[in-house]
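Please check what follows.
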Amino acid sequence: MSPRNLLRRIPKSTSLHWQNAAANRTSSLISHVHVPLTTRAPLAKHFYVCRRTLSTPAPMVNVSDLSIERYHALSDATMTTLLERLEDLLDTVGNDAYEVDYHSGVLTLNLGTHGTYVINKQPPNKQIWLSSPLSGPKRYDYVPESDDWRYARDGMGLGELLDEEITDMLRTKVSLHLEGVSGQIQE
């Protein structure tokens, strides 16, 4: 079997960093002999090694013990509470460019030039997903011990993050009080 069949050709457009594998192999085999670059280059045009550097770690997969009915009760209570508190906040701020909308499990908070938050239920994963104009996408799991929705990577609660970011954007103290979710469920 020839080396061509052993190494896969990888298009340069799929890589962030390229290393000339054939040139490295050739130079390591004859390290004591000087081989001009022009001699090594034709060998290298067929063999490439791709090394990827990812800026974010792979997603964390959490298996939830929640029943689907309990998930819907908790997530619906959270989304309803969040909607009510955001409506009250926007009424207090009094800026017509800001608006909040909740439809089909998706809450959208438009803060004009500050950006738009999208918060939605993800029943297959039993999570609440957040897309923030400041911190980007996050996936929140329900944590019974703290009785709220927490991001597994940093342990921060959904309400904590929203309080912090919206406070910074609006330059007014915001406290949405999203903890204690199970107490908000109407049985």
